[in-house]
Amino acid sequence: MFDFFTAVLEYPFLQYALLACLLASLGCGVMGTWVVVKRISFLSGGIAHTVLAGMGVAYFFQASPIVGAVIAALLTAILIGWIKLRWRQDEDVLIAAFWSVGMAIGILFISRTPGYNTDLMSYLFGNILLVTGKHLILMAILDAVIIVTVFLFYRQFLAATFDEEFARLRGINVEAYYILLLCMIALTIVLLIQIVGLILVMALLILPAASAVQFSSSIPRMMVIAVVLSTLITSIGLLLSYQPDLPSGATIIVVAGLVYFVAIVSKQLGKAR
Description:
Elements: H1 2-10, H2 12-38, H3 41-60, H4 65-86, H5 91-111, H6 118-125, H7 133-152, H8 154-162, H9 164-169, H10 174-213, H11 219-242, H12 248-272
Helix pairs in contact: 1-2, 2-7, 2-10, 2-11, 3-4, 3-5, 3-10, 4-5, 4-10, 6-10, 7-10, 8-10, 10-11, 10-12, 11-12
């Protein structure tokens, strides 16, 4: 443990990693709360796995995979929201369709890309130690977009989440704000990819917020608790993975799972008293 703290003071890549933990936790805590209270975790998983299509296409055309991820995530969020609301299709079928087809498209384009790219593997499975200054700037921009959007449209998101009929009577365009909410979730998914990778991103988006739900019923408080828990989870996961050279993304998710387990047990014990 002391080796880790010594290394943080010495190596910039660890300093970048800890900053990435903080930046990712901001978006994760804020949007993860909406995912949990709206109960759209599997929809978020569908968006996350469709991102592979954008990355695969970007790699094939020698473009930035993160730009491809942003485009794919936003397009998927808009399409899923539009088809669900306008064409009244079952959400679970839509999720399965986008999830599987998106990954298939990504695999096809990756298979046609010459060579083996280790950067792509870091996006799939996460490698927080490869975070650069450019990644941090992009993460900060995405955080700013997410937080400003939630601040500006908090009441509309709240109404659309808990009472759609009342929101419609008040003249709120529920469909538009639902799709906007999905777009913010999509950006959060891109934000978290560098930390835990595409495969594990849904767990980090949901578990800190699900843990926060056990301690508060207020949305703002849940967001604050989720941000704090996410920061602790990612930082502790990074610390535990450093010395034995374990995969950082997987270690972070295990820590998140343990925190969630402790949270639900603590709530049940509190009820028992």
